[in-house]
């Protein structure tokens, strides 16, 4: 890297240059630079929602795509998500005040017996990065934890993750309970985890299997759109 | 220093390891979400049956039911204070069975990942990881394990912590990583990078390699990566029997015994010395693998086209090794 590139002064960039630079800084996981960029854009009079979508969400989309394509791996994505979190901490209260559009709400956790929460954390962060509200139930969740949280939070989506062959069947236990209680149609159910595949997702009655965090975000958006369309039609 | 596994490795061209633990225990009635390690106390007979399945099918090495036996994992079942006991018992049941055989069978003390992300990205420090693995290793040693068997690791830092724990426990060890993300481990390590890491370790494993991941084709590609240059230790190949499907309330892996037999011979042709299965691999698969290894003549070193033809396609175009064009992001400009 040439030395002059070390000396980028964010406040001297125009709006377009700055948001592109923020995409790069997100990619490189530079939290302080992201916080600085968010503050500069806000000072310049950008709506919080515009900062979120144009500077942060589009930046995380690049990260998500490269993760999906095997260019970035978990360590880099964790750093990017951490930088995103820095920006979100500034924007969150402002978004609430300004009544920005709501993308949707997801309740997520690893299933009973599974403490492997790396994938689940990535999905949480990428979903937040895409503007969704996420309620993270953590690890080792029994049926009731999912059902109660989904109802109490008024969630649109239930996300379940399992990394072990020994815990993946538990996803079906949760879905079966939703069906039994007549709640299945109230939620979009997304499942993920290393040993799973699309066919498995279908077989246990989930709406979709998401092979990684980037796909989870795309799938969630698509299903939310369908849900809105159905509501509009109904 | 010689031990049962190094003696066996010196005598034989290949060794058959075992198959699945988790999927097999499910078929014996383990409930999803429960800790398999508790069965070392509650259902000794079933754990004996699990081990016996592999031994009777011809496995030279079998892994103990202690994969989730670190304090980090047992905490989930409020059994974090029982690490020594559960690991000791898991190994003891194996020792008892191995000693009854008329030939050498290796009891390998399974040690799976802690499930936590290591510092600085996550909360798990090197010291704590070493401490947890060491505690488990001591239990396995007390129970009579011949060797420690670290498996399904994603992070190089965790692999190195396990190596240090093995040294502290004064135990020989083997260690495999899981290459399940575009041909690399979840944390981005390639097969060749793992071989380089192993070469530099102070307490070297008796054998290193890959387990689990995505089907047998991907695993074979990883083995080729290990053996592309002279590997720093004998290579282990322990692949899943296909991919998981949900059939009538059970998880079923779709790889047939015949497919796993082909895979076993290809792994040998690719330079692997210790060959076995992982998820979905039953004693029936192991018998077919043993028979094939004993009767089929060694073939040429397989290449990607051959693997694809015999075992099926890969999950990604490249595995990040060699001269294959690496996908890269076009950056505008980067900070230094």
UniProtKB/TrEMBL annotation, chain A:
B12-binding domain sequence ranges: 103-234
Any one Gene Ontology cellular component term annotated for this protein: cytosol
InterPro entries membership: Cbl-bd_cap, Cobalamin-bd, Cobalamin-bd_sf, Met_Synthase/Corrinoid, Meth_synthase_dom
Any one GO molecular function term: cobalamin binding
Source organism superkingdom: Bacteria
PROSITE patterns: B12_BINDING, B12_BINDING_NTER
Phosphoprotein keyword on record: no
CDD domains: corrinoid_protein_B12-BD (cd02070)
SMART domains in alphabetical order: B12-binding_2
GO BP: homocysteine metabolic process; tetrahydrofolate metabolic process
Keyword Ribonucleoprotein: no
PANTHER family from the UniProt entry: METHIONINE SYNTHASE
Family assignment from sequence similarity: Belongs to the methylamine corrinoid protein family.
Full protein name: B12-binding domain-containing protein
From TrEMBL, chain B:
SUPFAM superfamilies referenced in this protein's UniProt entry, alphabetically: Homocysteine S-methyltransferase (SSF82282)
Mitochondrion as UniProt keyword: no
Region described as Disordered: 297-336
Keywords from the UniProt entry: Metal-binding, Methyltransferase, Transferase, Zinc
Pfam families, per the entry: S-methyl_trans
GO biological process: methylation
Record domain Hcy-binding: where: 3-293
PROSITE patterns found in the cross-reference section: HCY
PANTHER family per UniProt: SLR1189 PROTEIN (PTHR11103)
UniProt name for this protein: Betaine--homocysteine S-methyltransferase
Source organism per UniProt: Harenicola maris
Classification of source organism: Bacteria, Pseudomonadati, Pseudomonadota, Alphaproteobacteria, Rhodobacterales
């Amino acid at each position: 890297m040439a030395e002059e590139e070390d000396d980028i002064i964010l406040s001297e960039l125009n709006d377009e240059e700055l948001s592109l630079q923020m995409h790069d800084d997100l990619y490189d996981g530079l939290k302080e630079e992201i916080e600085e960029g968010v503050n500069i854009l806000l000072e310049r009079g950008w709506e919080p929602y515009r900062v979120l979508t144009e500077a942060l969400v589009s930046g995380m989309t690049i990260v998500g795509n490269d993760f999906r394509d095997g260019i970035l791996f978990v360590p880099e994505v964790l750093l990017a998500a951490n930088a995103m979190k820095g920006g979100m901490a500034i924007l969150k209260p402002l978004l609430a005040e300004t009544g920005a559009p709501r993308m949707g709400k997801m309740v997520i956790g690893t299933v009973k017996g599974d403490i492997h929460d790396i994938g689940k954390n990535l999905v949480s962060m990428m979903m937040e990065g895409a503007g969704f509200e996420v309620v993270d139930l953590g690890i080792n969740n029994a049926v009731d934890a999912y059902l109660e949280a989904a109802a109490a939070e008024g969630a649109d989506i239930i996300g379940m993750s399992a990394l072990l062959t020994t815990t993946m069947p538990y996803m079906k236990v949760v879905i079966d309970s939703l069906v039994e209680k007549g709640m299945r149609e109230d939620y979009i159910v997304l499942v993920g985890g290393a040993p799973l595949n699309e066919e498995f997702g279908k077989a246990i009655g989930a709406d979709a299997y998401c092979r990684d965090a980037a796909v989870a975000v795309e799938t969630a958006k698509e299903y939310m759109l369908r849900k809105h369309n159905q509501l509009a039609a109904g | 220093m010689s031990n049962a596994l190094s003696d066996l490795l010196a005598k034989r061209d290949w060794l058959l390891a075992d198959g699945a633990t988790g999927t097999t225990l499910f078929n014996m009635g383990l409930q999803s979400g429960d800790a398999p390690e508790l069965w070392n106390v509650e259902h000794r007979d079933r754990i004996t049956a699990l081990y016996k399945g592999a031994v009777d099918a011809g496995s030279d090495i079998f892994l103990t039911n202690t994969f989730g036996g670190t304090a980090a994992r047992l905490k989930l079942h409020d059994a974090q204070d029982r690490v020594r006991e559960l690991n000791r018992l898991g190994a003891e049941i194996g020792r008892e069975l191995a000693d009854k055989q008329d030939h050498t069978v290796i009891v390998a003390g399974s040690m799976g990942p802690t499930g936590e992300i290591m510092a600085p990205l996550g909360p798990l420090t090197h010291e704590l990881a070493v401490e947890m693995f060491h505690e488990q290793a001591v239990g396995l040693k007390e129970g009579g394990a011949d060797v420690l068997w670290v498996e399904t690791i994603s992070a190089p830092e965790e692999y190195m912590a396990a190596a240090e724990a093995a040294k502290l426990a004064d135990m020989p060890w083997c260690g495999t990583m899981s290459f399940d993300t575009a041909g690399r481990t979840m944390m981005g390590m390639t097969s060749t990078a793992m071989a380089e890491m192993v070469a530099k370790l102070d307490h070297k494993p008796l054998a290193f390699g890959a387990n689990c991941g995505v089907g047998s084709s991907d695993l074979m590609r990883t083995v080729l990566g290990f053996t592309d240059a002279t590997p720093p230790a004998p290579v282990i190949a322990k692949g899943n029997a296909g991919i998981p499907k949900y059939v009538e309330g059970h998880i079923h892996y779709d790889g047939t015994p015949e497919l796993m037999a082909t895979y076993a011979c290809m792994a040998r042709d690719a330079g692997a010395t210790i060959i076995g299965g992982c998820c979905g691999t039953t004693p029936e698969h192991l018998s077919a693998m043993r028979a094939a290894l004993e009767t089929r003549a060694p073939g040429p070193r397989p290449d990607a086209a051959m693997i694809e033809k015999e075992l099926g396609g890969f999950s990604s175009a490249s595995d990040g090794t060699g001269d294959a064009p690496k996908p890269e992001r076009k950056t505008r400009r980067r900070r230094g």
